[in-house]
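Reading a protein record of the kind used here takes only a little practice. The record below shows the convention in full:
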Amino acid sequence: MMKVKLPKILILALMGLLLILPGCSGKPAPETKSQSVQPLPAVPQTDPAKAAESEKFFVQGLKLYEQYEYREAVASFDKAIAADPANTKVYTAKGIALCFEGDYAGGIALIQKTLDSKPGYVPALYDMAMAYKLQNQLDQSLYWFEQTIKGDPKNTWSYYGIATIYADKGKTQESLKYLKKAIELDSGAKARAKEPDHFAAMRKLAEFQALVK
């Protein structure tokens, strides 16, 4: 049989066509848009009744916490979480209550859980400051009080907390500066300043007496 010799230019053209066709080049065909884009999973919707139940137990827990009934507060916060685990503000509330009960590791973990889902959430920042203050870890507490003030420049009790820390460190002028700011924001800080031992070494100072009179 007579062989037909194809022109070189035609041979090159045929080879190029084979490389372009899917499956002929040895490489997998590129995914189409419909193959590569997957639909996002549906976000579960919280049952409104459960959300309302969670909020009820949360408020109940806060009232118990304010009455220093920490164990009972934790029980209410647990009910709030059970009703709606997505109610993330409950975790920090339970966390600081646990810290007052002496469970610092467990409490801080829960406060951090709220911050992980709601970075910059002021109540959680304040709770973290208090959690470290309860352990007398003053530098860490100071840091978190400062973060609280960044989030809420009018957060009275963060200024007050910083004032007590500086008083404990023997830094009188810094303490007076923050105590003055706390009292300017809320005169109720005057009564508080007269009670704790933090300011014992400062009580006879004219500047201190002028602030709390």
About this structure: Residues 48-66 form the longest helix (19 residues).
